[in-house]
Amino acid sequence: MSKLDNNDDLLVKKAQGGNKKAFNILVIKYQNKVCNIISRYLNGDSHEIEDIAQETFIKAFRSLHNFRGDSAFYTWLYRIAINTTKNYLLSNMKKNKKSDLTIDDADVMDIPNLKEVENPENLLTTVELRNKVLSCINELSDELKTCITLREFDGLSYEEISDIVNCPVGTVRSRIFRAREFIEKSINSIG
């Protein structure tokens, strides 16, 4: 167990005992990570992501007495964030049908490392590839999408992912393999 886990355990115990400052420290510590998790599932604006993050922390606070420490606090919080986001998506599916990207979306898209691209052809290829990868990920089933994003975007180990999605490590490996295979085949079919 790492020093951070011990620190989280202490904060959780204090928060379970009614210390709101201890829970606020956990919120501050994990708010960016929770927002990043949520943003991978939403194409919405930052206000939407912040609202779901806030709902995640409210649910965590209300359920804190149920946290037994069988997993790390962050693993438990991660599950709550994913479930809250999925519930949000399900409840808004009918009224928020998303269309394809438009020319107006190009002004607000945040694509990292674009300054490193030196010519328009490379820029176009990079943007197209990034959009294709993200599109492929969005086409995956929830199980595959969750496992591949936890591994590739969050850098979690197979064991950590296994704890989060509550399935055996072998199943996690299989899901990640299938997700990578689907993405690779889709990208290879472009050219």
Automatic annotation (TrEMBL):
GO terms for biological process: DNA-templated transcription initiation. GO terms for molecular function: DNA binding; sigma factor activity. It comes from the Bacteria. Pfam families: Sigma70_r2, Sigma70_r4_2. Keywords: DNA-binding, Sigma factor, Transcription, Transcription regulation. The keyword DNA damage does not apply. Residues 26-92 form the RNA polymerase sigma-70 region domain. Residues 131-182 form the RNA polymerase sigma factor 70 region 4 type domain. PANTHER family: ECF RNA POLYMERASE SIGMA-E FACTOR, RNA POLYMERASE ECF-TYPE SIGMA FACTO. Belongs to the sigma-70 factor family. ECF subfamily. This is RNA polymerase sigma factor. It comes from Paraphotobacterium marinum.
